[in-house]
Amino acid sequence: MSIRAEHLTHLYSPGTAFESYALKDISFEIADGSFVAVIGHTGSGKSTLIQHLNGLYRPTSGTVYYNGEDIFAEGYDLKALRTKIGLVFQYPEYQLFEEDVITDVMFGPKNMGLSDDEARARAKKALMQVGIGESLYKRSPFDLSGGQKRRVAIAGVLAMDPEVLILDEPTAGLDPRGREETLAMLEELHSERKITVILVSHSMDDVAECADMLMVLKDAELKFFDRPKEVFRHVEELESYGLAVPEITYLAHDLIKAGLDIDPTVSTVSEAKAELLKLLKW
Ligand code: ADP
Ligand code: MG
Which atom of ligand 1 is nearest to the CA of 200? Predict the structure, then answer.
């Protein structure tokens, strides 16, 4: 069970003066149940890439396999795929449209042909998991706060009970607290539902703690696909792509320069703490 991209290439406006590559010969395999972060500067191809994974965009060449099946092969059921691979677009709150919260979240499951009762049960579970309580069910989505709207939109995708949840910059525009809460919620979803999560972000600090694999895109090319720690070794290369390593990794490097014997791949606060405690015992 996995998502496998093979030589995925996407050319926008082919044959015109505006022809440009958004993806160039990208291959990778995402194992079932993993938490993958897709990182890259604006315009690197992140949104284009993820929209190939549930078949919204067709590749110019190359293809995507889901559980061993070519999703762009003739006769493949893309509609069914889109319920298994749920995609939360950037600023998903703009896509809320029903008169109240519960009806909005029930839309996806109803559209899949589930009964009212089943759809409601799915919606309730999803809303609970994103931290939206019953007192908000009958409210208009438009009356909610920005953070609440986004949670409702995520619940709408979750209610389809996807095997894979893809989110395009779910923390964009949120304040630091909203970002932290959203990331904590995603980690919880990942462990509770045992689903694969693919999180698009442009902040290393956002993903260092939660992702077990990191995909780095630069100008339509896949530069790294590895464990975060391995990727963070390449500080200069990442900086040349307009990316930074986590703040805590910079701090570790400063301490090394000051003469301390610390692991240069430290990338979370708890790892840094463990390293410092180890030193203090001397
Ligand atoms: P990211 O999500 O990393 O910011 P995108 O996938 O949106 O990157 O864009 C990758 C490249 O493709 C950029 O150069 C962007 O300008 C271009 N692009 C994106 N969408 C379109 C489109 N619909 N038509 C033409 N070019 C596009
Ligand atoms: Mg994007």
Answer: 2
> What was the pLDDT predicted at 106?
97
Instruction: Tell me if the pTM is above 0.85.
Output: yes
C-alpha span between 155 and 132 (Å, rounded): 9
Distance 28 CA to ligand 1 centre (A): 20
| Same-domain pairing of 216 and 275 | no
Closest CA to 218 of 67, 81, 22, 61: 22
Q: Return the structure tokens found at 105.
A: 């979240």
For residue 265, give every residue at least 6 positions away whose Cβ sits within 8 Å of its Cβ, in sequence order, or none. Answer: 229, 230, 232, 233, 249
Q: Is residue 227 part of a domain?
A: yes
Residues 219 and 274 both lie in one domain: no
Closest CA to 149 of 223, 96, 211, 87: 96
Look at residue 124 and tell me if it is in a domain. no
**Ligand 1 neighbour 40 (Cβ under 6 A):** yes
Cα 106 → chain centroid: 23
Q: Determine if ligand 1 sits within 6 Å of the CB of residue 12.
A: yes
Q: How far apart are CA 87 and CA 186, in angstroms?
A: 14
Q: Is the CB of 16 under 6 A from ligand 1?
A: no
d(CA 8, CA 60): 8
How many domains, in total, are found in the chain? 2
**In angstroms, rounded to a whole number, what is the distance separating the alpha carbons of residues 25 and 8?**
5
Residue 43 lies in domain:
1-32+39-76+169-173+200-244
Residue 244 has pLDDT above 90, yes or no: no
What's the mean pLDDT in 150-164? 96
47 neighbors 66 (Cβ within 8 angstroms): no
| Domain annotation covers residue 88 | no
